Amino acid sequence: MASSKFDIVVYGATGFTGQLVAEYLAAHYKGDRALKWAMAGRSKEKLASVRDAIGAPADTPLIVADASDVASLKAMVAQTKSVISTVGPYQLYGNDLIAACVEAGTDYLDLCGEPVWMRQMIDRHEAAAKASGARIVFSCGFDSVPFELGTFFVQEEAKRVFGAPASRVKGRVRDMRGTLSGGTAASAKATFDAVAQDLSLVAILNNPFALTPGFEGVKQPRGNKPAFEEDLQSWTAPFMMALINTRNVHRSNMLMGFPYGKEFVYDEMVLTGPGEKGEANAKRVMAANSEKTGPNAPKPGEGPSKEERENGLYDLLYVAVAPDGRHVRAGITGDRDPGYGSTSKMISECAICLLRDTPDVPAGFWTPGAAMQHKLIKRLVDNAGLTFEVEK
Question: What is this structure's pTM?
């Protein structure tokens, strides 16, 4: 791969999220002459107009590639060390690109939150990826980077305080402002459609260990209805992203060699406050969740305005609980709306981190947290507006 023309190709650069990724690379790595990157999509004209609109250099290379044209995908991946794909739902548009990257030994990063498809790709291509040298990294956006790294970060503190990682970690959303991405809504719909056509997929979708082939851990909390949590003195509501994040956290644990133990229990909920008001809020969150994938959900390619993205944020609480009841806490925050503003920065930094900071990560299918650990946390704090802090 040393002779590759490019370090990174942003595939889907004319879409809403792809455009933000390209804009981030153009702005943040403006003076970095060592970074060679290109924009790819279906239309050269559209790519050129996006390039000009985001203020990327006029000589930024443009590559025409289409999910329905396998030859164009193979030609694209042959000339780069890594591909960032923002073209989802991945179960509809991702199969041939994954296959092309695996065959060429090209690294691949995406924003996938589709556990059934991810499991299918792992089963189909893991051996070939390890043979070719390709590193396939799913879920490099809001699902599931802050959650995966939040778990990792609080467990590092647990090791320091308890002398060992905790077998129980709670991920709790304290605050989140920003709209669900149209891509996330479309991915959820595509997953439900696939399951409706093949009911055998229900078992994968419902299994917390769907992404740990060969390993089934202990029973996990369902997290599917409001509950009052004594230790946090707050009502909690189901968190929509838990379906993918919990799977990725368990996969991360497996990929790192089970540092959290094989009895590890992990769940995610939204904190809604104490008392009757907290209970009412929890019920409202539950009702709002079903709206998010309904007919009024945003469409792929739609997204919030620049002002909405910049006014967005998220604040996550991580609690590691020792067997004797002691606990340590960590807070993770992001300075943009989760689905777009923060996600576009995170996947860009994942790609740079994989390329520059972790060249020794072996080939195969990875989660970003397991592959890049502390080095990724450092990049996200330095460049992408995230904070990781131990709390008293």
Answer: 0.96
